[in-house]
Specification:
The complex is a heterodimer of chains A (426) and B (515). With 426 residues, chain A is of the alpha/beta class. Chain A is built from 9 helices and 19 strands. Chain A has one domain. The longest helix of chain A is centred in the C-terminal third of the chain and has 18 residues. Chain A is globular. With 515 residues, chain B is α/β, with parallel strands linked by helices. Chain B has a domain of 309 residues. Chain B has a 10-stranded mixed β-sheet. Chain B has a 6-stranded parallel beta barrel with strand order 13-15-18-21-19-16. Chain B has a two-stranded antiparallel ribbon with strand order 1-2. Classes of the chains: A alpha/beta (426), B alpha/beta (515). The interface between A and B is large, with 36 and 37 residues. Chain A: This is Fe-S cluster assembly protein SufD. Chain A: InterPro entries: Fe-S_cluster_assembly_SufBD, SUF_FeS_clus_asmbl_SufBD_core, SUF_FeS_clus_asmbl_SufBD_sf, SUF_FeS_clus_asmbl_SufD, SufBD_N.
């Protein structure tokens, strides 16, 4: 079906600013991805899947200038021993990065190996993204597959001794970065991946993750504090039998963030937890879009999303649990909650269930409201100043999401960052 | 097909070997409910307009109803808008493309052309129809249009009935008694003639002409329906009821209901629907508009039991309905209660616009889909005024190969301070070939309002089942009991007469879904 004219024009205008790499193992996948983009067209304001978020700043040909922000805080995960890989405005920074060798894992850069004809990542690059295009189109992810300039290809075969940390710095006010990572976790292997930083004035990131039987991946992400940055990220994850995927995202500020997580539980007894905490003040738009497909028996999925919003900030949650025929004994849980600290902020949610198997226990809850007056009164009556009491209750509200992080040191760091935000914005 | 034709399911049960230990009563019960109880049709001579939809058909419908020019123009304008509109495809329902030119848009019993003077003159087939539907004799007389019937004594509790047979209203009962209270209850075609000022003021004010594809179609071709006006301060002395029946083949039924509850008034309105069993699907696109002024209250209850199609998904009614209530005044209150057991395809979202401060909207729904039925139903609660409250309780039950979707919107506008919403959507799955889905939209634009949404999906609990079976119930009885318990909150919201019927319907609709 031909695209509507305006959608066609927007898509072509954006494509005109990009160039497709011609050779190497990823070239066929990239050409196919470009064809998908042309077929779907880039998101437009009237698309149902973009009902609550305006996609125009993410799809326009040029980048809106975004000032570089110095928080004055120590870098993220500074106290934790990690293998650091640094990208500045989407460009690999060899000096700031560690040596990429680590036992139990092989890490390569997409840009380094792009010219070769054979690579293990060939079977995955663009494959999970393509699977994730049905039933809902995700054109920005296909755009990423076609035009990504760099990224990491992480092949986990054992249990690396430390987390792999991807830091995305922002230095150029007009940078427009497209990164694509592929992570393959072999059977029985286990890895922790950390991500942090604002990345660029505009950042399009796509990660494809394949977790084999009995393997595990832990993911903690802190999106940078640059107020004017814009980001559209996709994570496509496929889980094998008895595998585990646990992901947590902290978002503090940012004028536009759209985080999509697309999970497919294909092996029996797989476990997937996706959580997020976001705090926004003022010109802040944050969108968590999650789509979990249960296609095996005895699987468990959990979605926990908490948003604290003030001064006209907007929080969006679109979450879906799809239980395919035959995916019996599914345990699906989803909660999305917002705390509106003033009358100007808004919370928009669409928590969906689509279920085709009868022996399942699926539930979702969604609430929105102001701070609990009774709780506030209780704390005040105990001599806690109002501002401290509000912060305490806000932290308590966010705790359910932060609790999803298993590693205590990582959870502590997230809590201290949240405390810092509340102190600054209280 | 005549009324007494044997349904194929009957033969199947008879032929099947009856297992040892199964008593005859069970076999009979299954046989009875294996068929759609209201699946007969009445062989009455009908007057049809030609098939298809053109401006001439619209004019003809208007002419047959003896409508004034402004109404004809209104319809024609709607027809023009309809031509521009596209059929919506976002609902989780799947059906073959409808040929809107292959429908009759107007059909009425020929015997209604002149009013009969006594019961003897009434077409006995028409009377038999009402008897089968369970409408009391006195009301049958009135419905059949017998003059003076209203003065005949009636016993028991009174419910005023307006019955719509195919496209036309065939009679409204207890009009005089209602008139004493100042309540106007008549067919909409009569209201257009007798009370044009009210119709002009309110028609299309809640569901605008171009609201959606089906509502626009309805605006162009609606042939009849009910009209209610309750004057200020009046508590309607009896429950009002409309009975819709599609009889003729390939006829679309497009009824239009307009209810106005003036300041401080109260009315409870019941709606029931049936249709004969046919191999081809039939179209139904209704519009209900309710206007509720200051301190007024309206209760609208529906038991929708259109023919759902046979167990192979053949035939059935396509039910595309737009229902909306507008709480215009402060402290206005509306309550929608629906039991949806029929129709092959249901597309229906009774909504509440809570405009007045302190106004309240409630939505209670049971939607049961069995065999190949598909239902996409829910509500919209649009909070505009301060301190407005809404409550949604939706129970979806899916069995066989059916798909059942709850789709809803709760919207808190920035000025709707201190408002509250509570939503509960529970789905029950019986069997592994059916589906249950929940698609809620939640939009909160102020922080003094609280919105809570909960949804669960589960199957019939094994422990409960075991307990019932151990007490000697058969599997179907046990399921009916458990499902009735599951839907209790909604059944309790129904008026007494409907609650009893609805409970039986719940059991009947699920027959054949277990084992």
């Amino acid at each position: 079906m031909a695209l509507p004219q305006t959608k066609h024009d927007t898509t072509e205008a954006r494509l005109a600013t990009l160039s497709l790499p011609e050779s190497g193992w990823s070239a066929p996948a990239r050409r196919a991805a470009l064809a998908r983009v042309r077929e779907m067209g880039l998101p437009a304001a009237r698309d149902e899947y973009w009902k609550f978020t305006r996609p125009d700043t993410l799809t326009r040909p040029d980048v809106i200038e975004a000032a570089v922000f110095d928080s004055g805080e120590p870098p993220f995960f500074n106290e934790i021993d990690t293998l650091k890989v640094v990208f500045v405005d989407g460009v690999f920074d060899a000096d700031a990065s560690d040596d990429l060798s680590l036992e139990g894992v092989s890490i390569e850069r997409l840009a380094d190996v792009a010219g070769t004809d054979i690579h293990w990542a060939k079977d995955l690059y663009g494959t999970l993204e393509t699977n994730g295009q049905d039933p809902v189109a995700r054109p920005l992810a296909a755009l990423n597959t076609a035009f990504a300039t760099d990224g990491l290809l992480i092949h986990v075969t054992g249990k690396p001794s430390k987390p792999i940390q991807l830091t995305y710095s922002h230095a150029d006010t007009r940078s427009d970065a497209i990164l694509h990572h592929v992570v393959k976790v072999e059977a029985g292997a286990e890895v922790t991946i950390l991500e942090n930083g604002p990345a660029a004035a505009r950042f399009n990131k796509c990660t494809e993750i394949d977790i084999a039987d009995g393997a595990a991946l832990h993911h903690v992400r802190a999106q940078g504090r640059d107020h004017e940055r814009r980001a559209a990220t996709h994570m496509f994850t496929r889980l094998g039998e008895k595998s585990t995927y646990k992901s947590f995202t902290l978002t503090v500020n940012g004028v536009m963030t759209r985080n999509e997580q697309v999970l497919e539980l294909t092996g029996d007894e797989a476990i997937a937890h996706v959580a997020g905490a976001c705090v926004g003040d003022g010109d802040f738009h944050h969108d968590d879009t999650v789509f979990i497909t249960h296609d095996a028996v005895d699987c468990e999925s959990r979605q926990v999303f908490k948003k604290v919003l003030k001064n006209g900030a907007t929080g969006v949650f679109q979450g879906k649990i799809l239980v395919k025929p035959g995916a019996q004994k599914t345990d699906g849980y989803q909660i999305s909650q917002s705390l509106l600290l003033d009358g100007d902020s808004q919370f928009l949610a669409k928590p969906e269930l689509e279920i085709y198997a009868d022996d399942v226990a699926c539930s979702h809850g969604s609430t929105s409201g102001a701070i609990d007056e009774e709780g506030l009164f209780y704390l005040r009556s105990r001599g806690v100043p109002e501002r401290d009491a509000t912060n305490l209750l806000t932290l308590a509200f966010l705790a359910e999401a932060v609790d999803e992080i298993e590693d205590q040191a990582l959870a502590d760091e997230i809590v201290s960052r949240l405390e810092g935000w509340l102190t600054r914005h209280g | 097909m005549t009324a007494l034709d044997q349904h194929p399911a009957d033969a199947k049960i008879k032929d099947a070997d009856v297992k040892d230990g199964v008593d005859q009563e069970t076999v009979d019960a299954v046989r009875e409910i294996g068929t759609y109880k209201y699946g007969w049709n009445t062989d009455i001579e009908m007057e049809y307009a030609p098939k298809g939809l053109t401006p001439d058909i619209v004019r003809l419908i208007s002419e047959k109803n003896e409508e004034p020019q402004w109404m004809t123009d209104w319809r024609l304008a709607a027809y023009e808008r309809w031509l521009q509109k596209e059929e919506p495809d976002w609902a989780m329902v799947d059906y073959p493309e409808i040929d809107f030119q292959d429908q009759y848009y107007y059909a009425r019993p020929k015997s209604m052309e002149t009013k009969p003077k006594s019961l003897d003159e009434v077409d006995p087939k028409l009377l038999a129809t009402y008897e089968k539907l369970g409408i009391p004799l006195k009301e049958q007389m009135i419905l059949a249009g017998v003059e003076g019937a209203e003065d005949a004594p009636a016993d028991g509790r009174k419910v005023a009935v307006d019955a719509v047979f195919d496209s036309v209203s065939v009679g409204t009962t207890f009009q005089k008694e209602l008139q004493k209270a100042g309540v106007i209850f008549c067919s909409i075609s009569e209201a257009i003639r007798e009370h044009p000022e009210l119709v002009k003021k309110y028609l299309g004010s809640v569901v605008p002409v171009s609201d959606n594809f089906y509502a626009t179609l309805n605006s162009a071709v609606f042939s009849d329906g009910s009209f209610v006006y309750v004057p200020p301060g009046v508590r309607c002395p009896m429950e009002l009821s409309t009975y819709f029946r599609i009889n003729a083949e390939n006829t679309g039924q497009f009824e239009r209901t307009l209810i106005i509850a003036d300041k401080g008034s109260y009315v409870s309105y019941l709606e029931g629907c049936t249709a004969p069993q046919r191999d081809t699907s039939q179209l139904h696109a209704a519009v209900v508009e309710i206007i509720i002024e200051e301190d007024a209250e309206v209760k609208y209850s529906t038991v929708q039991n259109w023919f759902p199609g046979d167990e192979n998904g053949k035939g059935g009614i396509y039910n595309f309905v737009t229902k909306r209530a507008d709480c215009r005044g402060d402290r206005a209150k509306v309550m929608w209660t629906q039991v949806e057991t029929g129709s092959a395809v249901t597309w229906k979202y009774p909504s509440c616009i809570l405009r007045g401060d302190d106004s309240q909207g409630e939505f209670y729904s049971i939607a049961i889909t069995n065999n190949h039925q598909q239902a996409d139903t829910g509500t919209k609660m649009v909070h505009l005024g301060k301190n407005t409250r809404s409550r949604i309780v939706s129970k979806g039950i899916s069995a066989g190969f059916a798909q059942n979707t709850y789709r809803g919107l709760v919207s808190m506008h920035p000025k709707a301070m201190n408002s509250r919403n509570y939503t509960q959507c529970d789905s029950l799955l019986i069997g592994d070939k059916c589906g249950a889905h929940t698609v809620p939209y939640i939009e909160v634009k102020n922080n003094s309002s609280r919105v809570e949404h909960e949804a669960t999906t589960s199957k019939v609990d094994d422990d409960q089942m075991f307990y019932c079976r151990q007490r000697g119930m058969d599997e179907e009885e046990a399921v009916a009991l458990i499902v009735n318990g599951f839907a209790k909150e909604v059944l309790q919201a129904l008026p007494m007469e409907f609650a009893m019927e609805a409970q039986q319907l719940v059991a009947i609709s699920l027959e054949g879904s277990v084992g």
